[in-house]
Amino acid sequence: EEQEEDMQRELRCFLRHITERLYLDRRFKTFTKPVDTVQVPDYLQVIKQPMDLSSLLTNIDKHKYITVNEFVRDADLIWNNALTYNPDSATLDRKIRHRAHALKDALHAIIREHLDPEFEKACEAMKERR
Ligand SMILES: CC(=O)c1nc(NC(=O)[C@H]2CNCCN2)sc1-c1cc(O)cc(O)c1
């Protein structure tokens, strides 16, 4: 009903704010768009669930997420995939792993800084009702 729609609109605004903060951070430029499988032909053999910041925004607009936790599960794919695909001691792998860890910490710090636990509880309760 009405207040559920209001809550979901507030959730989408919250999730866009988080995603846009990360999108604007130059350290995470490599995570803003889907990995280019032409440049990286073996990527989809290794990574089964690709994710990136622009895809998160698209998913938000398509009302894919009705709780913050559902959003975090997809957002965590971005940095986890980068760690999985970049295990080597080579300089490029190491550089991408450092950016992946920075993305993980920035994501969870922004959420902790802005998320009202009562709001997330209300979203989870709504999910149970559906
Ligand atoms: C984000 C990411 O996970 C990524 N990792 C890479 N690692 C490598 O190429 C390492 C893997 N280990 C062996 C030595 N090469 S390239 C790459 C990438 C990211 C883009 O946004 C676009 C794109 O074309 C490629």
Task: Describe the 3D structure.
This protein has 130 residues and is mainly α. Helix content is 69%, strand content 0%. The protein contains six helices and no strands. Helix 4 runs antiparallel to helix 5 (91-114). The chain is elongated. The termini are close together. Bound molecules: the ligand CC(=O)c1nc(NC(=O)[C@H]2CNCCN2)sc1-c1cc(O)cc(O)c1. Residues 30, 35-36, 39-40, 82, 85-86, 88, 90, 92-93, 96 line the site of the ligand CC(=O)c1nc(NC(=O)[C@H]2CNCCN2)sc1-c1cc(O)cc(O)c1. Ligand BQK is lined by residues 30, 35-36, 39-40, 82, 85-86, 88, 90, 92-93, 96.
What sort of overall outline do the alpha carbons produce when their principal axes are compared? elongated
Class by SSE composition = mainly alpha
- Quaternary state of this entry equals single chain
Measured by DSSP, the beta-strand proportion falls in under 5%
Residues in helices, as a percent range? 55-70%
In DSSP terms (H or I, runs of 4 or more residues), the helix count works out at: 6
State the distance separating the first and last CA atoms.
11 Å
List the helices and strands and how they pair.
Blueprint (H helix, E strand, L loop, with lengths): L1 H22 L19 H4 L6 H9 L6 H18 L5 H24 L2 H13 L1
Helix pairs in contact: 1-3, 1-5, 1-6, 4-5
Bound molecules: the ligand CC(=O)c1nc(NC(=O)[C@H]2CNCCN2)sc1-c1cc(O)cc(O)c1.
Compact description:
With 130 residues, the protein is an all-alpha fold.
